[in-house]
Amino acid sequence: MQKDKVDHEIEAFGWVDRIRNLGGLVFVDLRDRTATLQIVIDPKAIPGVKELGLQDCIQVFGKVRERPDVQKTPKMTTGNVELEVSKIEVLGKSKVPPFVVESDVKANEDLRLRYRYLDLRREPMQQAIMFRHQVITAMREYLNKNDFIEIETPILTRSMPEGARDYLVPSRLYKGKFYALAQSPQMYKQLLMVAGFERYYQIARCMRDEDPRHDRQPEHTQVDMEMSFVDEEDVMTIAEGMFAHIFKQVLGQELKIPFPRMRYKDAIEKYGTDKPDLCFGMEIIDVKAAFKGKGFPPFKDKPDIRALVVKRGGSFSRKELDSLKDRAKELGLPGIFWVKREEKFSGSIAKLLDENIARQLQFEKGDLLVITAGSKKIFPFLGNLRNEFASELGLREKGFKFLWVYDFPIFELDEKTGAFTASHHIFTQPKPEDIKYLDTDPLKVRGRLYDLVCNGNELASGSIRNHNRQIQEKLFGIVKMDPTKYTMLLDALEYGAPPHGGIAPGIDRIIMILAGLKSIREVIAFPKTTTAQGLMENIPDQVTPQQLKDLHIKTDE
RNA sequence: GGGGUCGUAGUUCAGAUUGGUUAGAACGCCUGCCUGUCACGCAGGAGGUCGCGAGUUCAACUCUCGUCGGCCCCGCCA
């Protein structure tokens, strides 16, 4: 709606966003998904203007005119023009909304979710949802161009309870039997490779019955892809190309590819996590050499002594630092120790420091040095601290820092049960040089795995899969998974399965990060709460006794 | 399953530490005035089971306990 429409008679549809009634003249901001337009109404010529209410859906007829210069508002994209109304039709009257529908919404999130269709009218929500559409469009463009074909796989599938908890769907026709909602298309996409489609993708919904978080929903969407005759490099190149395409199409930015890479082991040692946030430094430093000979009892006989140098961290109070100690204790660490540096060193182990060590650590005036000693547990602990310090002190640089993390171990040890579990998923191919440890020391076996991390968030996870039945069965055996649940895959691997691998970037998180939003719920049209409820739909809810009877279900109480 | 935090007009919050008169403000809503506003302005008005339940007390929005709900975190998320 710009100058080229001036003096044209037009009709417009939209919602009443604001009313400024000056008595002899009424201005209404008419909003649709593209913009807001000021319409000007003469209440003498158009009776009934007084009945207009916020959020009414209306149709207006009138002539576009250019505003006099003093009345132009650069704030609005249509700020140079306005519509002189000759007729108004109320298409949908609105009740008084339960909260004021405006960009800078005041209402709490639960109220917004209860009336999500109103919340979604707000400009930031419209932007987010349309942004999401653009990102998904760019993904499809790129994958289509690269000879991927989009194939749908079942939502109703079989329960594979070894992963996350399944959402179960009771069968009506078969008493006591259940389907499960797909946790991922993993099995099917591998079968599509066996079937010879070579390059597949899908905008896939994945459902997992685990507690939601700000970046986790019971159902989430991923762009799931799989390729035959590829190795890690091929998959990573495709994924990098896809992100570059998204950045170019949607943000108009050149994204620097290839992304840097880091071994899992280095990520843990330097950042205490497998998803390092590279928007700031503060790497974990090995200080064992500097402190081992000092005769300080808590450090004695500890396998590792590691430190963080927190730039400008001297501002933390003793109380704040003491609370860290409690947290360390809860984790079974011997405690943490800190030194502040002003004119002199101060703090619990100031005595152990000297100018030499400080210089090596680049520990400068105003900084805080945090040290802890112990087993592997200190790494995730320091990794968490590192992130918290960065948030408190605002250390993060703006921008997007992508990183590949690779060389993950295939297995983890569940400390409670002593059993091995798959660190990512059990379909990952072991690195050929590590296969020899499968029988002797499974924890030593690295997988052909690669995670894509951006600003400390896991955005995608992928691997080269097993296309050999014997190896796949062996892996099932190590984690004590029931291979009969996967018969369809194991059988298929015996009919000319191609080598294959893939990756699955999580769309909700990608949108959240690219849009700079704090919660995944802001980029999903109809999300669930962190208690896994739909407040608008009022779900989960009870069903009728007849429905239960049909499904052969009896509930407690 | 565990921890933290919040819950007071339609909405967002103040009031609570120190229990005591009629629980306030802003936005929204209603009425009136206003022809250049764009967060319009001005005048007036309506609107409250202080989440729910119990306890302490002469007296509870306020203190105690319990409970329900939202958000954040841990567990969990192949």
Task: Throw out a few tags for this protein.
single chain; 557 residues; alpha+beta; OB fold (Dihydrolipoamide Acetyltransferase, E2P); BirA Bifunctional Protein, domain 2; Gyrase A, domain 2; 3 domains; 8-stranded mixed sheet; 5-stranded mixed β-barrel; 14 helices; globular; RNA-binding
Describe the protein in words.
α3 (123-145) packs across α5. The mean pLDDT is 91. By secondary structure, this protein is of the alpha+beta class. Helix content is 25%, strand content 24%. It is built from 14 helices and 23 strands. The chain is globular and about 90 Å long. The protein has helices spanning 109-114, 116-119, 123-145, 186-194, 232-251, 264-271, 288-291, 318-330, 355-361, 378-393, 469-478, 487-492, 507-514, 545-550; strands spanning 9-21, 26-31, 36-41, 57-66, 81-92, 149-150, 156-157, 168-170, 178-181, 199-207, 219-228, 261-263, 285-286, 304-310, 336-341, 345-347, 368-374, 402-406, 411-413, 420-422, 449-454, 457-464, 500-503. The termini are far apart. The strands form 5 sheets. Strands 6-10-11-23-22-21-18-12 form an 8-stranded mixed beta sheet, with helices on both faces. Strands 1-2-3-5-4 form a 5-stranded mixed barrel. A 5-stranded antiparallel beta sheet has the order 13-14-17-15-16. The protein folds into 3 domains: 3-92, Nucleic acid-binding proteins (OB fold (Dihydrolipoamide Acetyltransferase, E2P)), CATH 2.40.50; 125-250 and 402-545, Bira Bifunctional Protein, Domain 2 (BirA Bifunctional Protein, domain 2), CATH 3.30.930.10; 280-393, GAD-like domain (Gyrase A, domain 2), CATH 3.30.1360. The chain binds one RNA strand of 78 nucleotides through residues 18, 20-27, 29, 38, 40, 42, 53-54, 67-68, 70-71, 73, 75-76, 79, 96-100, 102, 106-111, 113, 160, 162-165, 183-184, 186, 208-214, 216, 421-427, 479, 481, 529-531, 535.
